[in-house]
Backbone:
């Protein structure tokens, strides 16, 4: 499996995702939490995500319907990923955590309605 690595800022949390799962379709959510996080996300199947280490450093935040679980490093505070409310078989990652990855001008960043998504 060709994969890419993601870290929180202090590198206490490390994850891998399948490289080919990072297609050009990214999103930003307009819910109250995601607006404050102000990050770009990519959803993928749970099979394409692997938490390599740092589970003990993650804290989970649930709000509203208490379905989605948003994970943050408890040392540096960086949001790394979340289990989606709309589809709990998927994980959304913070693409800004991916090492040596940047969104290009050709990439599509969709603004999604937070009342119907995560």
Residues:
């Amino acid at each position: 499996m060709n994969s890419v690595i993601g870290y929180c800022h202090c590198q206490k949390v490390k994850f891998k995702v399948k490289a080919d799962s990072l297609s050009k379709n990214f999103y930003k959510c307009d819910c109250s939490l995601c607006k404050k996080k102000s990050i770009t996300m990519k959803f993928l199947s749970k099979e394409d995500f692997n938490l390599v280490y740092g589970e003990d450093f993650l804290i989970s935040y649930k709000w509203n319907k208490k379905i989605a679980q948003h994970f943050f490093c408890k040392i540096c505070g960086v949001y790394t990923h979340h289990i989606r409310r709309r589809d709990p078989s998927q994980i959304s990652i913070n693409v800004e955590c991916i090492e040596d990855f940047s969104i290009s001008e050709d990439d599509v960043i969709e603004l999604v309605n937070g009342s119907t998504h995560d």
Remarks:
- Helices lie at 32-37.
- The chain has one helix and ten strands.
